[in-house]
Amino acid sequence: MLFVILTIITYVAAILWITPTIIKTNTNKPNTTVILGFGILTVLLHFITLSNQLSTMFGFRLTIINVVSFICLLMSLMMTFAITKWKTSLLPLLVIYILSIVSVALSGFITGETAKYFSQNISLLFHISIAMLSYAMFFIALLYVFQLKWIDFKLKNKQLSFSSHLPPLMTVERHLFSLTFIAQVLLTLTLITGMIYLPQVFSNNQIHKTVFSFMAWIIYAILLFGQWKLHWRGKRVLIYSISGMILLTVGYFGSRI
């Protein structure tokens, strides 16, 4: 419980530091060193907290809340280090830290949920890890879509004075494509390893995972092609991103919600 409280406190401190950077209108560059320091500390505490909740004498204890917390940890880790290279990561990082607080609080204070236990099966754990990493990157990409729409709205309404640290549209679009492409590669690996390491992947209680995950793969493949060749932007990218995320969520969590 101590680590849960410490993790929440450090996430809140990081949010309080980042928020003024986003909303102020002066031209000073954000202090990424301080943000990185806060981020590394919060991610480390989050990892310790989650490790205590996952590891049991029966193997790895996976509940929906623990899985969500792990995905938030992955997103926090990736975007914390991205802050040193990508100016576009500041706003998504703020949202991810807020989601991480919720996930840590839920995983720390709700313990009565039915859990699945996995022994130290390396191939299965690899499959699950790749699946979670893919989901995390698709979720970050979705946050980039919302950021893109928000900046575009501000530009059209000439309200971009809200912050001088908001990134250019073209940069956000480029990073969005990169995130979606990497996530799609990981989803492809997830589907392949699932068919190799999970012989019951087409059984009655697992078939929906395969079907919805493959449907999400198709949606994201169309989205990537549209962005690459047809120069899709705006509402169409948003619709495809949300649709893919919904399908992937149903595929990953549908049988346990």
From TrEMBL:
GO CC term (a single one): plasma membrane
What's one GO MF term for it? heme binding
TM helices/strands, residue ranges: 30-50, 62-84, 90-112, 124-146, 176-198, 210-231, 237-255
The record's Pfam families line, in alphabetical order, gives: Cytochrom_C_asm
Spell out the InterPro entries in the cross-references. Answer: Cyt_c_assembly (IPR002541), YpjD/HemX (IPR052372)
Keyword check for Membrane: yes
Tell me which residues make up the Cytochrome c assembly protein domain: 65-257
Q: Does the keyword Cell division apply?
A: no
Q: Which UniProt keywords apply?
A: Membrane, Transmembrane, Transmembrane helix
Q: Which domain of life is it from?
A: Bacteria
Tell me one GO biological process term.
cytochrome complex assembly
Task: Name the chain's protein.
Answer: Cytochrome c biogenesis protein CcsA
Q: Which gene encodes it?
A: ccsA
